[in-house]
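User: Predict the complex with NAP.
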Amino acid sequence: MKLGFIGTGAISDAVIRGLLTSDYAADEIIVSRRGERFSTKLAADFDKVRIEEDNQAIIDQADMIFLAVRPQIAKDVLLNLSVLSDKKLVSLIATIPIEDMKAWLKTDARFDRAIPLPAVEHHSCVTAVYPGSPDVMALFEKLGGAVAANTIDAFDGYATGSALMATYFTLLESSAQWMVAHGSDYAGARRYLAALFSGLAENTNKSPDQSFAALVDGHSTAGGLNEQVAKTFEREQGCAAIHTALDEVFARVKAASSS
Ligand SMILES: NC(=O)c1ccc[n+]([C@@H]2O[C@H](COP(=O)([O-])OP(=O)(O)OC[C@H]3O[C@@H](n4cnc5c(N)ncnc54)[C@H](OP(=O)(O)O)[C@@H]3O)[C@@H](O)[C@H]2O)c1
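Assistant: Here is the predicted structure with NAP placed in the model:
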């Protein structure tokens, strides 16, 4: 399988490094010269990476082509290109609908969208794929896992979920600041909370068949401190705040997709 990448930026770099340090069977990976900082380093680090100057040449030579330019310039870049129907396309470009990209590329080739995150480089994040063609799912399985979204709403829901990262750190920072206000030093509070949450993440990964609700039960004792914090969080509208934030991000993703 020959892979092509149009737009060799941060996320293409992470995907390519992840693939070439996994047992994924890539014969060759052809990358656009732009961005040069990433493409030059990739070609220096891996024999299987070759740089092409011309985006159409990448399409013509690759079996599966990844589109990874920024959404703002996607139309200008893709309008100059065309894709034969026997190729496979995977867009990593946020928000742009498949139908628009097909029109710009003058193609009816098979098309998936995916949302890899930078941790794919270390095979440690699950990638949402729409609609989830088997070979694209298999590729992202090598990078930590893949989930297929059956509808565009489900896919946009995964994109929305990926916006929770800063809130995770907000929870940690705000808890650390509370501990500092009660006498801890920041380094101690940081170390303690980081280990606590990393242990919880490990427990979650070790029990894939347990729902999060079951994990809430497993980490609370009736009348205990964990149950108390969870109940206060609910009473003070913590869950409602998260749902409102996700609703707002989802609406923004939808608006960007239709503009
Ligand atoms: N970063 C993430 O975590 C992430 C996750 C999921 C999806 N995405 C999506 O992936 C896409 C790329 O994101 P990114 O973070 O990798 O952005 P990025 O680092 O800015 O990479 C985009 C690359 O596209 C190159 N480019 C610009 N014009 C080009 C052209 N005409 N032909 C070929 N390449 C061209 C740029 O090169 P120059 O430097 O020469 O301009 C740049 O290196 C975006 O649509 C984003 O929504 C990103």
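The beta strands are 2-6, 28-32, 49-52, 64-67, 88-91, 110-115, 127-130, 146-148.
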